[in-house]
Design brief:
By secondary structure, the protein is mainly alpha-helical. It has one domain (about 65-295): MetI-like (MetI-like fold, Orthogonal Bundle). It has 15 helices and no strands. α3 (about 65-70) packs across α15 and α9 crosses α10 (about 185-190). The two termini are about 35 Å apart.
């Protein structure tokens, strides 16, 4: 087969050039801060404070990571964040998929009323104080459920899932009914295996959103042992509060200032690792799920 060369006009070439320049700038904007933080987490504190960044391997150290792993607060926060994000994702995706599929069924009684009710909640809500009082009254304060349950299901995700399910051929459901399958069997054996793209997209949205959240933990949790990683990281980055165990109880304030920056960078790297590791496995489903779930 002969490959035909595409002759682009001068306008097309100019647009392609502009596109490449913009994409290159975007890559630099994203990459430089990541490399900045990563390199800062491995630099010796004295070099980092006096000379700035250095690419000399003699100035590199893993002291920041050693201090973090030797201290229990960040690792405990890391495990708490995994628990909260995983639990939140399971609850969110489970209820969203069930609600989205139910609303995609044509003969569902009261479907229009339910959708109107859901849409109203997108524009009006009780606010922070009533939500806090509700969480308090049902006994969820200072527990992991206060982080996992409130806000686990959003109307936008339900609409996304509903649109995806409506795009699946009805012939699949009819074939299942002809074979004597119940609605539950059709959903579990036919619909779910075809719904991996939207499930992975919803899971990615939910996990990232909860992993980066700290405000709910700040108002619902009192026990510091329940703090997620992001709340501990907030104390380190914004309030400049480093746990005494990271520097030693008897060390002077000068030592705190010496290692604080390195600990900050190391904590940021650790906090970013799960998302960096997870995204490549979700990427192949991400584009398909978003496009199919939003364009119909």
């Amino acid at each position: 087969m002969n490959n035909k060369l595409i002759n682009n006009s001068k306008t097309d070439k100019l647009l392609l050039l502009i596109n490449k320049i913009l994409l290159s700038i975007t890559v630099l904007i994203v990459t430089i801060p990541l490399l900045y933080v990563l390199l800062g987490s491995f630099l010796q504190p004295d070099i980092l404070l006096t000379k700035g960044f250095s690419f000399d391997p003699k100035h590199w150290t893993v002291e920041g990571y050693v201090r973090i792993f030797n201290d229990g607060s960040i690792m405990r926060g890391f495990l708490n964040s995994i628990l909260y994000a995983t639990g939140f994702t399971l609850v969110s995706v489970g209820f969203t998929i069930l609600a989205g599929y139910s609303l995609s069924v044509d003969n569902l009684a009261g479907k229009r009323i339910i959708m109107i009710y859901f849409l109203i909640t997108m524009f009006f809500n009780g606010g922070m104080v009533p939500t806090y009082l509700l969480v308090k009254d049902i006994g969820l304060l200072n527990s992991p459920w206060a982080i996992i349950l409130p806000g686990a299901v959003t109307v936008w995700n339900i609409i996304l899932a509903r649109t995806y399910f409506k795009g699946l051929p009805n012939e699949l459901k009819e074939a299942g009914r002809i074979d004597g399958a119940s609605d539950a069997r059709i959903f579990l054996s036919i619909i779910l295996p075809l719904s991996k793209p939207i499930i992975f997209v919803l899971a990615l949205y939910s996990f990232i959103g909860q992993w980066n959240a700290y405000f709910e933990a700040m108002i619902y949790l009192e026990d510091r042992s329940l703090y997620p990683l992001q709340l501990i990281l907030r104390d380190i980055l914004i309030q400049n509060e480093v746990e005494p165990g990271m520097i030693g109880d008897q060390m002077a304030r000068a030592e705190l200032q010496r290692v604080a920056e390195m600990i900050k960078y190391s904590a940021i790297v650790i906090a970013s690792l799960p998302l960096i590791i997870m995204y490549p496995f979700f990427q192949k489903y991400f584009e398909k799920g978003v496009m199919v779930g939003s364009l119909k």
